## 1
Amino acid sequence: MIVFFILKYKQNTNISEKKSPTKNSYPLVFFIVVCQYIYMKCPICGSKGLKTTNSRPTQSGNQTWRRKQCPKCHSSITTYEKADLSWLNIKDNTGASMQTYKKAALYKSLIDSLDSNELHEIDVDNLIDSIEQKIVSMHKTVINKNELIKIVLSTLKPISLKAYIKYLTSHSSLHNKRELNSLIKDI
Protein backbone atom coordinates (compact mmCIF):
# COMPACT_ATOMS: atom_id res chain seq x y z
CA MET A 1 0.00 0.00 0.00
CA ILE A 2 2.88 2.40 0.72
CA VAL A 3 4.32 1.78 -2.73
CA PHE A 4 0.96 2.72 -4.25
CA PHE A 5 0.97 6.07 -2.43
CA ILE A 6 4.54 6.82 -3.50
CA LEU A 7 3.84 5.91 -7.13
CA LYS A 8 0.60 7.91 -7.13
CA TYR A 9 2.41 10.94 -5.69
CA LYS A 10 5.24 10.67 -8.25
CA GLN A 11 2.71 10.54 -11.08
CA ASN A 12 0.98 13.69 -9.85
CA THR A 13 4.20 15.71 -9.57
CA ASN A 14 6.48 16.87 -12.32
CA ILE A 15 9.67 14.94 -11.62
CA SER A 16 11.45 16.41 -14.63
CA GLU A 17 11.61 19.79 -12.86
CA LYS A 18 15.05 20.63 -11.61
CA LYS A 19 14.90 20.78 -7.84
CA SER A 20 17.65 21.91 -5.52
CA PRO A 21 19.10 19.08 -3.43
CA THR A 22 18.02 20.78 -0.21
CA LYS A 23 14.31 20.69 -1.06
CA ASN A 24 12.24 17.72 0.07
CA SER A 25 10.53 15.88 -2.75
CA TYR A 26 7.57 14.90 -0.61
CA PRO A 27 5.55 17.18 1.67
CA LEU A 28 5.29 16.52 5.39
CA VAL A 29 1.59 15.71 5.14
CA PHE A 30 2.38 12.89 2.74
CA PHE A 31 4.73 11.30 5.29
CA ILE A 32 2.16 11.62 8.07
CA VAL A 33 -0.40 9.79 5.93
CA VAL A 34 2.09 7.04 5.07
CA CYS A 35 3.22 6.58 8.70
CA GLN A 36 -0.03 4.94 9.71
CA TYR A 37 0.69 2.08 7.28
CA ILE A 38 4.17 1.27 8.61
CA TYR A 39 4.14 -1.98 10.55
CA MET A 40 4.95 -1.84 14.24
CA LYS A 41 5.60 -4.68 16.68
CA CYS A 42 3.24 -5.23 19.58
CA PRO A 43 5.08 -4.41 22.83
CA ILE A 44 3.06 -7.11 24.68
CA CYS A 45 3.34 -10.20 22.44
CA GLY A 46 5.84 -9.09 19.78
CA SER A 47 3.63 -9.85 16.78
CA LYS A 48 3.84 -7.60 13.72
CA GLY A 49 1.06 -5.66 12.08
CA LEU A 50 -0.71 -3.55 14.68
CA LYS A 51 -3.91 -2.14 13.24
CA THR A 52 -4.63 1.59 13.58
CA THR A 53 -8.16 1.90 14.95
CA ASN A 54 -8.26 5.63 15.64
CA SER A 55 -6.09 8.59 14.63
CA ARG A 56 -6.34 12.33 15.21
CA PRO A 57 -4.15 15.40 15.75
CA THR A 58 -3.40 16.40 19.32
CA GLN A 59 -4.74 19.61 20.82
CA SER A 60 -1.52 21.51 20.07
CA GLY A 61 -1.62 20.27 16.48
CA ASN A 62 2.04 19.28 16.26
CA GLN A 63 1.58 15.58 17.04
CA THR A 64 -0.66 12.79 15.80
CA TRP A 65 -2.36 10.55 18.36
CA ARG A 66 -3.02 6.99 17.23
CA ARG A 67 -4.79 4.09 18.94
CA LYS A 68 -3.45 0.76 17.70
CA GLN A 69 -4.68 -2.75 18.41
CA CYS A 70 -2.85 -6.05 18.16
CA PRO A 71 -4.76 -8.68 16.14
CA LYS A 72 -3.07 -11.52 18.05
CA CYS A 73 -3.37 -10.58 21.77
CA HIS A 74 -6.06 -7.85 21.30
CA SER A 75 -4.17 -5.35 23.48
CA SER A 76 -4.44 -1.65 22.64
CA ILE A 77 -1.60 0.86 22.69
CA THR A 78 -1.43 4.58 22.10
CA THR A 79 1.31 6.27 20.10
CA TYR A 80 2.17 9.93 19.64
CA GLU A 81 3.89 10.72 16.38
CA LYS A 82 5.75 13.94 15.81
CA ALA A 83 7.66 15.31 12.83
CA ASP A 84 11.42 15.01 13.07
CA LEU A 85 13.05 18.21 11.86
CA SER A 86 16.26 16.54 10.71
CA TRP A 87 15.34 17.63 7.17
CA LEU A 88 15.61 21.31 8.16
CA ASN A 89 18.80 23.23 7.41
CA ILE A 90 19.74 26.54 9.01
CA LYS A 91 21.57 28.89 6.66
CA ASP A 92 24.14 31.23 8.17
CA ASN A 93 23.42 34.96 7.89
CA THR A 94 26.16 35.30 5.28
CA GLY A 95 24.77 32.36 3.31
CA ALA A 96 28.20 30.74 3.21
CA SER A 97 27.42 27.75 5.41
CA MET A 98 24.48 25.58 6.43
CA GLN A 99 23.89 23.46 9.50
CA THR A 100 21.31 20.81 10.24
CA TYR A 101 18.69 21.90 12.75
CA LYS A 102 19.45 20.61 16.24
CA LYS A 103 16.72 20.60 18.85
CA ALA A 104 19.34 20.30 21.62
CA ALA A 105 20.98 23.58 20.56
CA LEU A 106 17.62 25.37 20.66
CA TYR A 107 16.88 23.80 24.04
CA LYS A 108 20.24 24.97 25.46
CA SER A 109 19.81 28.51 24.13
CA LEU A 110 16.35 28.75 25.72
CA ILE A 111 17.60 27.37 29.04
CA ASP A 112 20.41 29.93 29.00
CA SER A 113 17.88 32.72 28.39
CA LEU A 114 15.54 31.77 31.22
CA ASP A 115 16.15 32.51 34.90
CA SER A 116 16.13 29.67 37.39
CA ASN A 117 12.80 30.98 38.74
CA GLU A 118 11.31 31.01 35.24
CA LEU A 119 12.51 27.46 34.57
CA HIS A 120 10.15 26.21 37.27
CA GLU A 121 7.19 28.10 35.80
CA ILE A 122 7.74 27.66 32.06
CA ASP A 123 7.47 24.32 30.28
CA VAL A 124 10.46 24.51 27.93
CA ASP A 125 9.35 21.43 25.97
CA ASN A 126 6.02 23.06 25.09
CA LEU A 127 7.89 26.25 24.18
CA ILE A 128 10.13 24.29 21.79
CA ASP A 129 7.09 22.47 20.37
CA SER A 130 5.41 25.78 19.53
CA ILE A 131 8.63 27.08 17.92
CA GLU A 132 8.97 23.90 15.85
CA GLN A 133 5.31 24.10 14.84
CA LYS A 134 5.91 27.62 13.50
CA ILE A 135 8.96 26.37 11.60
CA VAL A 136 7.01 23.49 10.01
CA SER A 137 4.17 25.84 9.05
CA MET A 138 6.65 27.86 6.96
CA HIS A 139 6.89 24.90 4.52
CA LYS A 140 10.60 25.45 3.95
CA THR A 141 13.51 23.04 4.13
CA VAL A 142 16.09 25.81 4.53
CA ILE A 143 15.59 28.85 6.73
CA ASN A 144 17.89 31.72 7.51
CA LYS A 145 19.34 31.96 11.02
CA ASN A 146 17.69 35.37 11.42
CA GLU A 147 14.30 33.82 10.61
CA LEU A 148 14.83 31.26 13.36
CA ILE A 149 15.84 33.99 15.82
CA LYS A 150 12.69 35.99 14.95
CA ILE A 151 10.50 32.92 15.50
CA VAL A 152 12.09 32.25 18.89
CA LEU A 153 11.78 35.90 19.90
CA SER A 154 8.13 36.12 18.85
CA THR A 155 7.44 33.00 20.93
CA LEU A 156 9.40 34.22 23.96
CA LYS A 157 8.04 37.78 24.04
CA PRO A 158 4.57 37.03 25.49
CA ILE A 159 6.03 34.56 27.99
CA SER A 160 8.98 36.43 29.50
CA LEU A 161 10.38 39.83 28.56
CA LYS A 162 13.53 39.12 30.55
CA ALA A 163 14.20 35.94 28.55
CA TYR A 164 13.31 37.80 25.35
CA ILE A 165 15.95 40.49 26.01
CA LYS A 166 18.54 37.94 27.11
CA TYR A 167 17.98 35.84 23.99
CA LEU A 168 18.02 38.95 21.81
CA THR A 169 21.35 40.15 23.18
CA SER A 170 23.03 36.77 22.87
CA HIS A 171 21.77 35.86 19.38
CA SER A 172 21.51 39.06 17.40
CA SER A 173 24.34 40.79 15.62
CA LEU A 174 24.14 44.14 17.40
CA HIS A 175 27.18 46.35 17.07
CA ASN A 176 26.65 48.77 19.94
CA LYS A 177 24.44 49.61 22.91
CA ARG A 178 22.50 52.19 20.94
CA GLU A 179 21.12 49.50 18.59
CA LEU A 180 20.18 47.33 21.57
CA ASN A 181 18.42 50.24 23.29
CA SER A 182 16.43 50.99 20.15
CA LEU A 183 15.31 47.36 19.94
CA ILE A 184 14.33 47.33 23.63
CA LYS A 185 12.32 50.54 23.15
CA ASP A 186 10.36 48.80 20.39
CA ILE A 187 9.15 46.23 22.95
## 2
Amino acid sequence: MSEPAAHSQVETSTPKELVREPLVLNNRPLGWITNQVAGIVEGDMPKWWNIAFGVSFLLMLMSFGYIGYLITTGVGVWGLNHPVAWGWAIVNFVFLDRYWSCGNAHFGDSFFAPSEMANFG
Protein backbone atom coordinates (compact mmCIF):
# COMPACT_ATOMS: atom_id res chain seq x y z
CA MET A 1 0.00 0.00 0.00
CA SER A 2 0.99 3.46 -0.66
CA GLU A 3 1.32 6.16 1.90
CA PRO A 4 -1.45 8.79 2.18
CA ALA A 5 -0.74 12.02 0.38
CA ALA A 6 0.42 14.83 2.58
CA HIS A 7 -2.33 17.35 3.19
CA SER A 8 -1.44 20.86 2.34
CA GLN A 9 -2.00 23.52 4.95
CA VAL A 10 -5.01 25.80 4.22
CA GLU A 11 -4.63 29.37 5.41
CA THR A 12 -7.53 30.21 7.75
CA SER A 13 -6.47 33.61 9.01
CA THR A 14 -8.81 36.57 8.55
CA PRO A 15 -7.69 39.19 6.07
CA LYS A 16 -6.36 42.38 7.60
CA GLU A 17 -9.21 44.58 6.32
CA LEU A 18 -11.86 42.35 7.94
CA VAL A 19 -10.34 42.33 11.42
CA ARG A 20 -12.52 44.30 13.87
CA GLU A 21 -11.84 45.58 17.32
CA PRO A 22 -13.40 43.41 20.03
CA LEU A 23 -16.77 44.62 21.29
CA VAL A 24 -15.97 43.78 24.91
CA LEU A 25 -12.63 45.01 26.12
CA ASN A 26 -10.57 44.19 29.24
CA ASN A 27 -11.82 40.59 29.43
CA ARG A 28 -13.93 41.33 32.54
CA PRO A 29 -16.11 38.69 34.25
CA LEU A 30 -19.88 38.63 33.77
CA GLY A 31 -20.63 40.05 37.23
CA TRP A 32 -18.50 43.15 36.74
CA ILE A 33 -21.27 45.39 35.36
CA THR A 34 -23.66 44.19 38.07
CA ASN A 35 -21.13 45.16 40.72
CA GLN A 36 -20.65 48.57 39.11
CA VAL A 37 -24.38 49.37 38.96
CA ALA A 38 -25.31 47.86 42.32
CA GLY A 39 -22.33 49.51 43.98
CA ILE A 40 -23.92 52.93 43.40
CA VAL A 41 -27.08 51.93 45.25
CA GLU A 42 -25.55 49.71 47.89
CA GLY A 43 -22.62 51.95 48.73
CA ASP A 44 -22.49 54.57 51.46
CA MET A 45 -24.42 57.77 50.86
CA PRO A 46 -22.34 60.93 50.54
CA LYS A 47 -22.70 63.55 53.26
CA TRP A 48 -24.27 66.10 50.87
CA TRP A 49 -27.15 63.67 50.18
CA ASN A 50 -28.13 63.53 53.84
CA ILE A 51 -27.99 67.33 54.08
CA ALA A 52 -30.10 67.77 50.94
CA PHE A 53 -32.60 65.17 52.18
CA GLY A 54 -32.91 66.97 55.53
CA VAL A 55 -33.51 70.33 53.84
CA SER A 56 -36.12 68.89 51.46
CA PHE A 57 -37.84 67.06 54.34
CA LEU A 58 -38.07 70.32 56.33
CA LEU A 59 -39.51 72.08 53.26
CA MET A 60 -42.09 69.31 52.91
CA LEU A 61 -43.11 69.68 56.56
CA MET A 62 -43.40 73.45 56.12
CA SER A 63 -45.59 72.93 53.05
CA PHE A 64 -47.88 70.58 54.96
CA GLY A 65 -48.07 73.16 57.76
CA TYR A 66 -48.97 75.92 55.30
CA ILE A 67 -51.63 73.75 53.66
CA GLY A 68 -53.07 72.91 57.08
CA TYR A 69 -53.11 76.61 57.97
CA LEU A 70 -54.86 77.38 54.67
CA ILE A 71 -57.50 74.71 55.29
CA THR A 72 -58.18 75.80 58.86
CA THR A 73 -58.08 79.57 58.18
CA GLY A 74 -59.54 79.84 54.69
CA VAL A 75 -58.51 81.37 51.41
CA GLY A 76 -58.24 84.79 53.00
CA VAL A 77 -54.64 83.73 53.56
CA TRP A 78 -54.13 84.33 49.84
CA GLY A 79 -55.57 87.80 50.14
CA LEU A 80 -58.86 86.78 48.54
CA ASN A 81 -61.10 88.83 50.79
CA HIS A 82 -62.66 90.57 47.79
CA PRO A 83 -65.04 88.54 45.58
CA VAL A 84 -63.54 89.77 42.31
CA ALA A 85 -60.10 88.52 43.37
CA TRP A 86 -61.37 84.93 43.15
CA GLY A 87 -60.74 85.12 39.43
CA TRP A 88 -57.01 84.85 40.03
CA ALA A 89 -57.36 81.54 41.89
CA ILE A 90 -59.68 80.16 39.23
CA VAL A 91 -57.33 81.19 36.42
CA ASN A 92 -54.40 79.59 38.23
CA PHE A 93 -56.28 76.36 38.78
CA VAL A 94 -58.03 75.94 35.45
CA PHE A 95 -55.63 77.38 32.91
CA LEU A 96 -52.19 76.98 34.49
CA ASP A 97 -52.91 73.52 35.87
CA ARG A 98 -53.87 72.56 32.35
CA TYR A 99 -50.24 72.92 31.30
CA TRP A 100 -48.88 71.08 34.35
CA SER A 101 -51.15 68.10 33.71
CA CYS A 102 -50.41 68.00 29.96
CA GLY A 103 -53.81 69.44 29.12
CA ASN A 104 -55.89 66.41 30.03
CA ALA A 105 -57.16 66.81 33.56
CA HIS A 106 -59.10 70.06 33.28
CA PHE A 107 -59.84 70.26 29.58
CA GLY A 108 -63.56 70.41 30.24
CA ASP A 109 -63.15 73.41 32.54
CA SER A 110 -61.02 75.33 30.08
CA PHE A 111 -63.29 74.38 27.15
CA PHE A 112 -66.65 75.28 28.68
CA ALA A 113 -65.61 78.23 30.84
CA PRO A 114 -65.39 80.73 27.91
CA SER A 115 -68.80 79.67 26.59
CA GLU A 116 -70.33 80.10 30.04
CA MET A 117 -68.71 83.52 30.36
CA ALA A 118 -70.11 84.56 26.98
CA ASN A 119 -73.65 83.68 28.13
CA PHE A 120 -73.21 85.44 31.47
CA GLY A 121 -75.44 88.42 32.00
## 3
Amino acid sequence: MADYTTHICFEVELPREDCAADAIVLYEQIEKAIDSDEWPDALQQFKTDWLVFGIAIRHEGRVLTISDDYGAPNMDLLCDYIQELLRRFDPGGCVGFLYSEDCTASRVGAFGGGAILVTADGAEWYSASSALDAMKKDFAARQKIAAGR
Protein backbone atom coordinates (compact mmCIF):
# COMPACT_ATOMS: atom_id res chain seq x y z
CA MET A 1 0.00 0.00 0.00
CA ALA A 2 1.42 3.37 -1.00
CA ASP A 3 0.82 6.66 0.76
CA TYR A 4 0.35 9.83 -1.26
CA THR A 5 1.32 13.14 0.31
CA THR A 6 1.41 16.82 -0.50
CA HIS A 7 4.05 18.99 1.13
CA ILE A 8 4.24 22.75 1.56
CA CYS A 9 6.33 25.17 3.57
CA PHE A 10 6.31 28.90 2.90
CA GLU A 11 6.09 32.30 4.55
CA VAL A 12 3.38 34.94 4.43
CA GLU A 13 4.58 38.39 5.37
CA LEU A 14 1.80 40.59 6.75
CA PRO A 15 1.92 44.37 7.20
CA ARG A 16 1.98 44.36 11.02
CA GLU A 17 2.33 42.02 13.99
CA ASP A 18 -1.33 42.50 14.96
CA CYS A 19 -2.32 41.24 11.47
CA ALA A 20 -0.34 38.06 12.09
CA ALA A 21 -2.04 37.62 15.45
CA ASP A 22 -5.45 38.10 13.80
CA ALA A 23 -4.47 35.57 11.12
CA ILE A 24 -3.73 33.00 13.84
CA VAL A 25 -7.10 33.68 15.47
CA LEU A 26 -8.86 33.11 12.12
CA TYR A 27 -6.90 29.87 11.62
CA GLU A 28 -7.92 28.66 15.09
CA GLN A 29 -11.57 29.54 14.40
CA ILE A 30 -11.50 27.51 11.17
CA GLU A 31 -9.84 24.57 12.95
CA LYS A 32 -12.51 24.70 15.67
CA ALA A 33 -15.32 24.78 13.08
CA ILE A 34 -13.82 21.77 11.26
CA ASP A 35 -13.48 19.84 14.53
CA SER A 36 -17.03 20.60 15.69
CA ASP A 37 -18.67 20.76 12.23
CA GLU A 38 -20.39 23.93 13.43
CA TRP A 39 -19.81 26.80 11.01
CA PRO A 40 -20.77 30.27 12.26
CA ASP A 41 -21.99 32.72 9.61
CA ALA A 42 -18.66 34.55 9.65
CA LEU A 43 -16.88 31.34 8.57
CA GLN A 44 -19.33 30.00 5.97
CA GLN A 45 -16.95 30.85 3.11
CA PHE A 46 -14.48 28.32 4.57
CA LYS A 47 -16.93 25.46 5.06
CA THR A 48 -15.45 22.19 3.90
CA ASP A 49 -16.26 18.50 3.93
CA TRP A 50 -12.65 17.68 4.79
CA LEU A 51 -12.10 16.48 8.32
CA VAL A 52 -8.85 18.43 8.71
CA PHE A 53 -7.29 21.69 7.58
CA GLY A 54 -4.00 19.82 7.38
CA ILE A 55 -1.66 22.74 7.97
CA ALA A 56 0.49 24.02 10.79
CA ILE A 57 1.04 27.73 11.28
CA ARG A 58 3.51 29.53 13.46
CA HIS A 59 4.36 33.16 13.49
CA GLU A 60 7.22 35.35 14.47
CA GLY A 61 6.47 39.03 14.42
CA ARG A 62 4.50 39.75 11.28
CA VAL A 63 5.59 36.64 9.37
CA LEU A 64 3.53 33.45 9.26
CA THR A 65 5.23 30.18 8.38
CA ILE A 66 2.73 27.73 6.93
CA SER A 67 3.58 24.07 6.44
CA ASP A 68 1.72 20.84 5.86
CA ASP A 69 0.65 18.77 8.83
CA TYR A 70 1.62 15.18 7.97
CA GLY A 71 1.40 15.63 4.21
CA ALA A 72 -2.33 16.24 3.88
CA PRO A 73 -3.12 19.95 3.53
CA ASN A 74 -6.53 20.98 2.25
CA MET A 75 -5.10 23.10 -0.56
CA ASP A 76 -8.41 24.70 -1.58
CA LEU A 77 -9.12 25.76 1.99
CA LEU A 78 -5.55 27.00 2.35
CA CYS A 79 -5.95 29.20 -0.73
CA ASP A 80 -9.28 30.52 0.61
CA TYR A 81 -7.60 31.30 3.94
CA ILE A 82 -4.69 33.14 2.30
CA GLN A 83 -7.10 34.99 0.01
CA GLU A 84 -9.02 36.20 3.06
CA LEU A 85 -5.78 37.34 4.75
CA LEU A 86 -4.94 39.35 1.64
CA ARG A 87 -8.42 40.88 1.50
CA ARG A 88 -8.15 41.96 5.13
CA PHE A 89 -4.53 43.01 5.39
CA ASP A 90 -2.93 43.46 1.96
CA PRO A 91 -5.54 43.80 -0.84
CA GLY A 92 -2.96 44.65 -3.50
CA GLY A 93 -0.53 41.92 -2.49
CA CYS A 94 0.01 38.31 -3.42
CA VAL A 95 1.35 35.13 -1.87
CA GLY A 96 3.07 32.50 -3.96
CA PHE A 97 4.23 29.08 -2.90
CA LEU A 98 5.38 25.73 -4.21
CA TYR A 99 4.01 22.32 -3.34
CA SER A 100 5.23 18.79 -3.93
CA GLU A 101 3.19 15.68 -4.51
CA ASP A 102 4.93 12.52 -3.41
CA CYS A 103 4.32 8.82 -3.02
CA THR A 104 5.99 6.24 -0.79
CA ALA A 105 6.14 3.80 -3.73
CA SER A 106 7.67 4.15 -7.17
CA ARG A 107 4.62 4.72 -9.35
CA VAL A 108 4.47 6.43 -12.71
CA GLY A 109 2.58 9.70 -12.39
CA ALA A 110 2.60 9.66 -8.59
CA PHE A 111 5.15 12.46 -8.20
CA GLY A 112 4.84 16.09 -9.11
CA GLY A 113 3.93 19.39 -7.66
CA GLY A 114 3.51 22.92 -8.77
CA ALA A 115 3.05 26.50 -7.76
CA ILE A 116 0.10 28.56 -6.59
CA LEU A 117 -0.22 32.33 -6.70
CA VAL A 118 -2.95 33.72 -4.44
CA THR A 119 -4.32 37.27 -4.63
CA ALA A 120 -7.27 38.92 -2.93
CA ASP A 121 -9.29 38.08 -6.06
CA GLY A 122 -8.41 34.41 -6.53
CA ALA A 123 -5.73 31.79 -7.03
CA GLU A 124 -3.81 30.56 -10.05
CA TRP A 125 -2.49 26.99 -9.99
CA TYR A 126 0.41 25.74 -12.10
CA SER A 127 1.22 22.04 -12.05
CA ALA A 128 4.52 20.44 -12.96
CA SER A 129 2.72 17.90 -15.16
CA SER A 130 1.01 20.66 -17.17
CA ALA A 131 4.32 22.47 -17.61
CA LEU A 132 5.96 19.24 -18.80
CA ASP A 133 3.12 18.61 -21.27
CA ALA A 134 3.55 22.14 -22.66
CA MET A 135 7.31 21.62 -23.03
CA LYS A 136 6.75 18.34 -24.89
CA LYS A 137 4.31 20.03 -27.30
CA ASP A 138 6.76 22.87 -27.87
CA PHE A 139 9.56 20.40 -28.53
CA ALA A 140 7.41 18.43 -31.00
CA ALA A 141 6.49 21.65 -32.83
CA ARG A 142 10.18 22.62 -33.08
CA GLN A 143 11.06 19.15 -34.36
CA LYS A 144 8.33 19.39 -36.99
CA ILE A 145 9.61 22.79 -38.16
CA ALA A 146 13.21 21.52 -38.25
CA ALA A 147 12.16 18.45 -40.28
CA GLY A 148 10.38 20.68 -42.81
CA ARG A 149 13.55 22.57 -43.75
## 4
Amino acid sequence: MEDLSRLRRRRAANRTFLNKTLEKIDQQLEDYTDDKSKKAKLKAFRDTLNEKLGVLNELNAKILDQLDEDDFEKEIDETSELKMTIQERIANIELAIKRVYSLHESSSSRESSSSHESGSSQVSNLFFSVFFFAITLMT
Protein backbone atom coordinates (compact mmCIF):
# COMPACT_ATOMS: atom_id res chain seq x y z
CA MET A 1 0.00 0.00 0.00
CA GLU A 2 1.35 3.42 -0.97
CA ASP A 3 1.87 5.83 1.87
CA LEU A 4 -0.49 8.75 2.27
CA SER A 5 2.05 11.49 1.50
CA ARG A 6 3.05 9.83 -1.77
CA LEU A 7 -0.60 9.50 -2.83
CA ARG A 8 -1.22 13.15 -2.04
CA ARG A 9 1.85 14.22 -4.05
CA ARG A 10 0.64 12.18 -7.03
CA ARG A 11 -2.80 13.75 -6.72
CA ALA A 12 -1.29 17.25 -6.46
CA ALA A 13 0.71 16.66 -9.64
CA ASN A 14 -2.44 15.53 -11.46
CA ARG A 15 -4.37 18.53 -10.15
CA THR A 16 -1.66 20.89 -11.42
CA PHE A 17 -1.83 19.29 -14.85
CA LEU A 18 -5.62 19.48 -14.82
CA ASN A 19 -5.70 23.15 -13.84
CA LYS A 20 -3.36 24.02 -16.71
CA THR A 21 -5.45 21.91 -19.07
CA LEU A 22 -8.68 23.58 -17.89
CA GLU A 23 -7.19 26.99 -18.74
CA LYS A 24 -6.32 25.76 -22.23
CA ILE A 25 -9.82 24.36 -22.65
CA ASP A 26 -11.39 27.65 -21.62
CA GLN A 27 -9.34 29.42 -24.29
CA GLN A 28 -10.32 26.84 -26.90
CA LEU A 29 -14.01 27.15 -25.99
CA GLU A 30 -13.82 30.94 -26.14
CA ASP A 31 -12.30 30.86 -29.64
CA TYR A 32 -14.20 27.82 -30.87
CA THR A 33 -15.43 27.70 -34.44
CA ASP A 34 -16.58 24.83 -36.59
CA ASP A 35 -13.08 23.89 -37.69
CA LYS A 36 -12.02 20.23 -37.93
CA SER A 37 -8.69 20.77 -36.16
CA LYS A 38 -10.33 22.73 -33.33
CA LYS A 39 -13.01 20.09 -32.98
CA ALA A 40 -10.34 17.37 -32.85
CA LYS A 41 -8.42 19.33 -30.22
CA LEU A 42 -11.53 19.74 -28.07
CA LYS A 43 -12.28 16.04 -28.35
CA ALA A 44 -8.71 15.24 -27.28
CA PHE A 45 -9.11 17.56 -24.30
CA ARG A 46 -12.39 15.82 -23.43
CA ASP A 47 -10.73 12.41 -23.56
CA THR A 48 -7.84 13.65 -21.42
CA LEU A 49 -10.26 15.05 -18.84
CA ASN A 50 -12.13 11.76 -18.69
CA GLU A 51 -8.87 9.85 -18.24
CA LYS A 52 -7.56 12.20 -15.54
CA LEU A 53 -10.92 12.16 -13.77
CA GLY A 54 -10.55 8.39 -13.47
CA VAL A 55 -7.00 8.77 -12.13
CA LEU A 56 -8.15 11.36 -9.58
CA ASN A 57 -11.07 9.19 -8.48
CA GLU A 58 -8.70 6.27 -7.94
CA LEU A 59 -6.22 8.40 -5.98
CA ASN A 60 -9.00 9.95 -3.92
CA ALA A 61 -10.35 6.50 -3.03
CA LYS A 62 -6.89 5.31 -1.98
CA ILE A 63 -6.40 8.42 0.14
CA LEU A 64 -9.81 8.01 1.80
CA ASP A 65 -8.96 4.40 2.62
CA GLN A 66 -6.03 5.63 4.70
CA LEU A 67 -7.84 8.42 6.55
CA ASP A 68 -9.73 8.38 9.81
CA GLU A 69 -13.47 8.82 9.45
CA ASP A 70 -13.16 12.25 11.09
CA ASP A 71 -11.20 13.50 8.07
CA PHE A 72 -13.61 12.20 5.39
CA GLU A 73 -15.78 15.30 5.14
CA LYS A 74 -12.87 17.71 4.67
CA GLU A 75 -11.23 15.44 2.11
CA ILE A 76 -14.45 14.98 0.13
CA ASP A 77 -15.11 18.73 0.15
CA GLU A 78 -11.63 19.40 -1.21
CA THR A 79 -11.90 16.84 -3.98
CA SER A 80 -15.49 17.45 -5.07
CA GLU A 81 -14.97 20.97 -6.38
CA LEU A 82 -12.33 19.99 -8.93
CA LYS A 83 -14.38 16.94 -9.93
CA MET A 84 -17.41 19.16 -10.64
CA THR A 85 -15.25 21.60 -12.61
CA ILE A 86 -13.91 18.78 -14.76
CA GLN A 87 -17.40 17.42 -15.38
CA GLU A 88 -18.60 20.91 -16.28
CA ARG A 89 -15.82 21.36 -18.85
CA ILE A 90 -16.58 17.96 -20.38
CA ALA A 91 -20.21 19.04 -20.72
CA ASN A 92 -19.14 22.42 -22.15
CA ILE A 93 -17.00 20.68 -24.76
CA GLU A 94 -19.85 18.39 -25.75
CA LEU A 95 -22.28 21.29 -25.94
CA ALA A 96 -19.88 23.43 -27.98
CA ILE A 97 -19.31 20.68 -30.50
CA LYS A 98 -23.00 19.87 -30.78
CA ARG A 99 -24.09 23.50 -30.63
CA VAL A 100 -21.84 24.61 -33.47
CA TYR A 101 -23.03 21.65 -35.53
CA SER A 102 -26.65 22.57 -34.77
CA LEU A 103 -26.02 26.25 -35.48
CA HIS A 104 -24.36 25.34 -38.76
CA GLU A 105 -27.32 23.22 -39.83
CA SER A 106 -29.93 25.72 -38.65
CA SER A 107 -27.94 28.52 -40.28
CA SER A 108 -28.29 26.75 -43.60
CA SER A 109 -32.03 26.47 -43.03
CA ARG A 110 -32.33 30.12 -42.03
CA GLU A 111 -30.32 31.31 -45.01
CA SER A 112 -32.85 29.72 -47.28
CA SER A 113 -35.62 31.58 -45.47
CA SER A 114 -33.60 34.85 -45.30
CA SER A 115 -33.69 34.98 -41.52
CA HIS A 116 -30.33 35.60 -39.77
CA GLU A 117 -29.41 35.42 -36.10
CA SER A 118 -26.49 37.55 -34.89
CA GLY A 119 -23.28 35.93 -33.65
CA SER A 120 -23.63 37.47 -30.20
CA SER A 121 -27.09 35.99 -29.87
CA GLN A 122 -25.70 32.59 -30.79
CA VAL A 123 -23.00 32.93 -28.14
CA SER A 124 -25.63 33.95 -25.57
CA ASN A 125 -27.70 30.91 -26.44
CA LEU A 126 -24.62 28.70 -26.05
CA PHE A 127 -23.83 30.26 -22.67
CA PHE A 128 -27.35 29.67 -21.36
CA SER A 129 -27.35 26.10 -22.67
CA VAL A 130 -24.05 25.40 -20.91
CA PHE A 131 -25.23 27.13 -17.73
CA PHE A 132 -28.47 25.13 -17.66
CA PHE A 133 -26.59 21.88 -18.31
CA ALA A 134 -24.09 22.64 -15.52
CA ILE A 135 -26.93 23.38 -13.08
CA THR A 136 -28.56 20.11 -14.08
CA LEU A 137 -25.32 18.24 -13.31
CA MET A 138 -25.13 19.76 -9.84
CA THR A 139 -28.66 18.75 -8.84
